[in-house]
Amino acid sequence: MTYSGTGVDTTKVADETRALARILAQTAAFRRGIGESVLDNGYYASALRITDDLALGICTDGVGSKLLVAERMGKFDTVGIDCIAMNVNDLVCIGAEPIALLDYIAVERLQPGVMAEIAKGLHEGAKQSRIVIPGGETAQLPEMIKGSKPGHGLDLVGMAVGIAPLPRINSGAGVEPGDVVIGLASSGVHSNGFTLARRALFQGGGFDIDTHRPELGRTVGEELLEPTRIYVREAMDLFAEVEVRALCHITGDGLGNLTRVAAKVGWVLDTLPEPLPVFRLIAEAGKVDPAEMYTVFNMGIGMCVVVRPEEVDAACAVALRHGAKPAVIGRATGENPGTVSLPKQRLRGSGTAFAPV
After folding, report:
1. Which terminus of the chain is more solvent-facing, meaning fewer CB atoms within 10 Å of its CB: N or C?
2. Domain range for residue 130?
C-alpha cells in the first residue's frame, strides 16, 4: 500500500501548496512595522513583528482523519489534545511560547455529548501547553462534512498564537555541519498518515477497531487514538538553557521535515531507534515498504532538537526532566544539502519523499 494509493497524493499537494504560497507571499507587502512578517512563508509557523523586541507566532492545523477512528470508537475525549498538539508543537519550532488557541469544529449533525467530550481533550491539551482557549467557532454543514456513519461526520481545527523575543525567532538558519540531532520520542502515530494507517490495518490486516494486539498491549483503536505528545514545556526550557540551532516537528513527510530549516545543510541520521510496534504492524498489515513508511510517519521520533556537540548532554537533561525520551540520532552535514540520509535503512529523501539508495 502507498499513501497516494489511498487518494492522498503528497507530491500534488506540495505542488499546489507552492502555487498557493507564491501568491499569498505577496501579501507581505501589505504591512510594514506592526504585523510585518519576519519569516518566509512555509516554515512550521509564521512570525509577525509587534515591536522591535517582540514577535507574535501564529499557525493553524487540524486532527485529520484520526477523527474517523474516534468516530468508530465513539470516543472523542482525547482528539482535542491532538488539535492543540499539532499547533503548539509547530509554534515552538520558531521559538514562540504558545499562549492561546481558537478551535473550529464543523459537524455533519450535532450528536448529543460529543462537543463536551471534545472539550475535555481541548482542556487537557491547554493544561499541558499552558495556554488559554478564549473562544472558537462551530458550524453545522450536513452537505459538506461526512463521516463513516451517517450524521456523525466532524472536523476539528485550531489556530494558535504565541509570543517570543524577536531575536529568538528561529528558522534553523544557524545550523552548521557537525551539529547534532537529538530525537525526542513520539507517543505513537500522532496525527499524520491516518488514511494510510487505517487502510493498512483495517483493510490490509483485516483488523477491527477492537482487535487486541499483544505487541501493542491494547486494541488497535486504542493505539491509534493515543494522543499526540505535546513538547511545549521541554521546548521552552531548551530555548532558555541551551543554544537551539533548530527545532523540527516531525509530522507529514516524516524525518524529511528536517529539510525545512533555512541553513543549506544535509542530514545523516545513522542511529535511529527501532520503530514503535504500531509502525511495524502497519508495514506488515499493508505491505508498506520502508521508503513509504519513513515518508508518511514519524516512526517513533516526534520532535528533533539540533544543537552544538558540546550541548548534547545539557539538551538531553532538559528533555529527561520533562519526561521526554531523547536519543542522539544523527548530525547535520555539508554534503547533499536539502536531503536526509538514513544509512541503516538505505534511504534518502529530499523533503517530501524517501527513496531507496
Report:
1. C
2. 31-168
